[in-house]
Amino acid sequence: MGRNNASQGLRAAQMYYLQDLTMDAIARELRVSRSTVSRLLTNARDSGLVQIQIRSSAERTPELEDAIRRRFNVDVHVVPIPDTLSEQDSLERVSIQAGRTIGALVDSDAVIGVAWGSTISAVSQHLGRKLTHDSTMVQLNGAGNIQTTGIGYASDILRRFGTAFGARVEQFPVPAFFDRAETKEAMWQERSVSRILDLQQRMTMAVFGVGSMDSDIPSHVYAGGYLDEANIGSLAANDVVGDVATVFFRADGSDDGIVMNQRSSGPPLNVLRQVRRRICVVSGASKIVGLQGALAAGLVTDLILDEVTARRLLANQD
After folding, report:
1. How confident is the model at residue 50 (pLDDT cuts 50, 70, 90)?
2. What are the boundaries of each domain within the chain?
């Protein structure tokens, strides 16, 4: 935005958000068209000049959010959508609200772990800009498989988070899954890798979705060539319902004895549970079983999900 447009954008934002003037009144005062005012306000939001937060007191908390908060002991943001919306359109709506909600929670001096995946990739495209100081975005799990290094896919997500918050980006250039557990153990001793693991141990926030084999929009770990038939068979034999950052769990939240986790590059669930703020973004009722497992495992402190999935989540508890 040029200096003149930035100045006009600031004036328009102040009049609209602080003085309650209509777009028509602003257009008359700035001597521009109504469509120009609309564009100035959009640019002001996208550039981070304006940040919108919706605050609700306990008395005004929507019934659905309140019920989920009490049942699962998480902070929750339910994105209102009609039940006729496709899962792709639902993901877009959830991602837009999640991007703005996450931005309000990010502070300076933070170490934020980011998992790659279909949902977080969509969220990364809707993050508002918010300048922070001495913050770091660290990749939670490796992205390589037998078909690709995965570096481009994961780095694009990390780059968007880093750009949005003016933060350093630390990639994790290892496979998503190692062929052998002993190879992973040896790699974890390398200084270049242990530096990333140390960062993950110091995370103040983690952002992730829930992987599921059954979702209408396939989770990237299941659709991107990361698992062969033998791997999927092993997960089924272990009653796995989903994953967070390529670490798998059952419906009751347990993960003991799941062989694939010994080869996964993602942080052990007990490490993830130590992070003060753990933001989970879910879109699509077909991910409900994986979400229930993640909640049972105690992996979530903040949940952002669509209205249809929220209602299904509560219905399944009755």
Report:
1. confident
2. 3-46, 58-315
In DSSP notation, the chain reads: --HHHHHHHHHHHIIIIIS---HHHHHHHHTS-HHHHHHHHHHHHHTTSS-------GGGS-HHHHHHHHHH--EEEEE---TTS-HHHHHHHHHHHHHHHHHHH--SS-EEEE--SHHHHHHHTTPPP---SS-EEEE-S--B-SS---HHHHHHHHHHHHHHHT-EEE---SBSB-SSHHHHHHHTTSHHHHHHHHHHHT-SEEEE--B-TT-SS--HHHHTT---HHHHHHHHHTTEEEEETTEEEETTS--TT-GGGGTB-SPPHHHHTTSSEEEEEE--GGGHHHHHHHHHTT--SEEEEEHHHHHHHHHTT-
Q: Taking the domain 58-315, which CATH number applies?
A: 3.40.50.1360
What's the predicted TM-score (pTM) here? 0.82
Residue 120's pLDDT band (cuts 50, 70, 90) = very high
Angle, alpha carbons 42-45-46 (nearest 5°): 85
- pLDDT value at position 216? 59
Counting every residue, how long is the chain? 318
Instruction: Note the pLDDT tens digit of each residue in 229-243.
Output: 888 888 889 999 999
How do 240-244 and 247-250 pair as beta strands? Answer: antiparallel
Q: What is the per-residue pLDDT across 139-159, written as a single tens digit (0 to 9) for each?
A: 999 886 656 555 567 889 999
Mean pLDDT of 76-98: 89
Are 120 and 114 spatial neighbours (Cβ–Cβ below 8 Å)?
yes
CA atoms 103, 107, 108, 109: torsion sign: negative
| Residue from 202, 190, 199, 172 nearest 264 by CA | 172
Instruction: Write down the pLDDT at residue 59.
Output: 47
Q: 3-46 sits in which CATH class? A: mainly alpha
